[in-house]
Amino acid sequence: MRQMSYRKSRGRVQDPSLGMFEIENVIIRFAGDSGDGIQTTGALFSHDSAIVGHDISTLPDFPAEIRAPAGTLAGVSNFQLNFSSYDIHTPGDKPDVLVALNPAALKINLKEVRHGGVLILNHDAFDEQGLKKAGYTSDPRKDESLSGYQVYDLPITSLTVAAVKSSWLTRKQAALSKNMFTLGIIAWMYDRSIEDIIERVDRLFAKKKPELAEANKLALQAGYNYADTVEVFTARFRVSKAVLPPGNYRRISGNEATALGFLAASEMSGRSLFYASYPITPASDILHELSKLRHFGVKTFQAEDEIAAIGMAIGAAYGGALGLTGTSGPGVALKSEAIGLAVMTELPVVIANIQRAGPSTGMPTKTEQADLLQALHGRNGECPVPVIAPTTPSESFNLAIEAFRIAVKYMTPVFFLSDGYLANGSEPWRIPEPDELPEFEENYCTVPETFAPYARDEQTLARAWVVPGTPGLEHRIGGLEKEDITGHVSYDSENHERMVQLRAAKIQAIADDIPDLVVHGPQTGDLLVLGWGSTRGACRHAVEYAQANGLSVAGAHVRYLNPFPKNMGEVLNNFKYVLVPELNLGQLRMVLRAEFLVDAIGLNKVQGQPLSTMEIEEKIYEILGATLPSAAHG
Amino acid sequence: MARVIDIQADPDFNTAPAYERKDFTSDQTIRWCPGCGDYSILAQMQRTMPEICREMNLPRENVVFISGIGCSSRFPYYMNNYGFHTIHGRAPTIASGLRITRPDLQVWVITGDGDGLSIGGNHLMHCLRRNIDVKIVLFNNRIYGLTKGQYSPTSEMGKKTKSSPFGTVEKPINPLSIAIASKAGFVARAIDTDSGHLRKMLLRMARHRGSAFMEILQNCNVFNDGAFKDFTHKDVKSDRTVYLQHGEPIIFGKNNDKAISLRGGASGSLEPEVINVDESDRSEILIHDEAASGTAGSALAYLLAQLETPDFPVPLGVFRSIDKPLYGELLDDQIVQAKNQLGRGDFFKHLNSGDTWRVN
Fold first, then answer.
1. A12-61 pLDDT tens trace
2. CA distance B142 to A538
3. What pTM, to 2 d.p., does this model score?
4. How many domains does chain A have?
5. ipTM > 0.90, yes or no
6. Would the CB atoms of A468 and B96 count as touching at under 8 Å?
7. Is the peptide bond before B103 cis (omega within 30 degrees of 0)?
8. Which residues of B touch A317 (CB under 8 A)?
9. Domain spans, chain B
10. Were B2 and a residue from A270, A499, A588, B82 both cysteine, which residue would form a disulfide, CB within 3.0 to 4.6 Å?
11. Whole-angstrom Cα distance, residue A149 to residue A136?
């Protein structure tokens, strides 16, 4: 549907004299070397897109090496932006426009560009050496490789150098602004005010690096003027504002939203936030964000290792603060024993895992959802931990609050499972009003007259959170098995079984305290597409397109992975087929099959990249034996 | 929206009553082997606590014992304070997290040679160098007792144990060297059998502001009996140990006739030697300065930590005690300063700051 309406609208000439076309959405991918400022360019244009009122979704994609050898495939950095006049949920499958600042960027990305799409190439980089570094044996501009695309082969480096030579930079330094030159071109193509972007560059760079800001501004203006005056580009495009609910908006990434959510939990609970973490991609931004918040009383701690980080968080929780640690999969592996301690001592700690491609060091900057089973089961003993996962960057805000709500109310560690795609991706976020924040029911334990450390609240099964400094209630806790109620060390076999059951029952009881799984579309039918975490946008678009084509398909996205919502089994039984798209080899599917005896089908991808809408659509049609309308193919 | 309050005990409410030893004795049955050196250490802690609490006006509930894994780490169960028996090697991390968020608490870490120097060596080092106000007591019995007799990182080279039937082929680590190298503000050593001195050392630790480290040489009478007897046996102790006293010459021996000197050999190197007090110039005797600042201070403490039998007496007492800014206070200062500069954070103002736009 999106693809079709897109194509329809692309030809609708609004004002032929101006060559201005009205379209509904555009997917742009900026690509270049790691040192080319691609992420900055992408972020600037995304920001401008959001500010002018579009819905946006972004996908930054960069190598783990800080600087791989210049011009090589390994060093290519990408930033994809989807901006539109309607509600979008993904950065888009196939770029309509690719800006490639060197041959390597072209080579890596060309296969994903929509057929007929626009290629803006940096002519200056397509020399013999550049082509060789990218592994081209012949110049793609001169053979058939680029037939079927609109190619703009522009001397971007030399035009940039010529434009900024008025400032006192060397040629090499001047050339660094070529990303801004291309941004100027793109701004012109999509009818943006170059002044707004220049003003923002000024704000970002003028103080820290005035000469860089000056060069960037000159390059931006030059790129814009170039596109405006040189009659290379035959058309400009205008995307209408998206219809968004009224309110104050900001652009937010998943990691930013996560950090703000944890701050919100602290503000709502009146408990100070303590974040201990060891730097790790892609979680470090949470540490950076929270470290700025000293004026909120937030204490951040860069620990000596992952184990220390969770140990610190547990210590803080023991003392009554909101104990938080954040990491990625390898870090979780190291924290596992300590998470078990928090389960045994029943202390509220939140562990944020910003998943990345594994195993081992894997691909640190690439996304994956392969730590689900680790979160559910990756500890010794029967060691249940609630697991929740945001499904969009901005939703991380609410689920971060929810993680602490559950942790504190039920006296348990909680896993918050985000991933690199959510963490670095961004979208417009309507800033909540004070009365819109979710409830945070603080579990101020009522201490019974005869206090016992492991006496439980009848409803939640939580033990009381009695912190050191409380007179008369001195007691000891630890990782050894506890005698029920008294908390004394116990090796009694029946007591152990009772405690294992109690700890499991406590976590299971949380199912009564979380929302039901919501099914979008028919409540019964042929196929349910059931995803979790960051695949939501692609799942949702795919389901909507299939529904529009008359298929009996519904979608649901799981945020609560342990325990599952209470209606999960019922929902699964209402459909003939269940498709579970995941960025792993079938982890949620395995759990669903085990727990609900449902013959779920997997759609699994482990390429360090998000699932595309098209991939899910194809699978839907395959399962239902229907033919995918050809118009939907890009 | 609620303002964040620091969770601290009400200072008016939590004042220290006059405690006795029994106030620090929990109802738990002690499970150490009969004759274990740990009993003495526990007894001295329970006996010293009333004095610590009185002197520092500290209520019992504001004292927390945190331990790792090992025989020594059962300690918190037997103290009638708040206690946390954590996981192997990680007690300093949990103690740090607690102390940083709860400056009103006095936090002790009870650890052993395996827990503190093997699996948890990393945390020990970082806790000390950060100067987090945590008091770390390391029971060194040079053996793994809880797992029934494997060699530890402080076992002497060549030691035959269950896991080294042919003798170990690795050099032991010196706990004090690690503490001094990690720039701990307070470094001391005591032995389980000298209860009076041990109590003094515990009191000194409690008084110290900042990371404090003490090694207690502790006999494991089951798996490593007599590990220290070559210098702790009453017949030889006065000749083979020396009690360090701040500002005093380092003199030892049954008749106080021996001393440590740094008068140097021909090369003038920093080579300590034992000299006879009566046959030497008084000025040649090394004067102990636990508060010596700068490089010389830590170098001197390090040098003393290397002294071993049979060539030298084993020093006991406070090797080093210096005041440094506390991690927690520096962090709290940042918070105060940030609040002064920016005002106490307003959550919704914060959400709406920066690049925002309005959709109507």
1. 334 445 578 889 999 999 999 998 999 999 999 999 999 999 999 999 99
2. 60
3. 0.93
4. 3
5. yes
6. no
7. no
8. 97
9. 21-248+288-344, 253-285
10. A270
11. 18
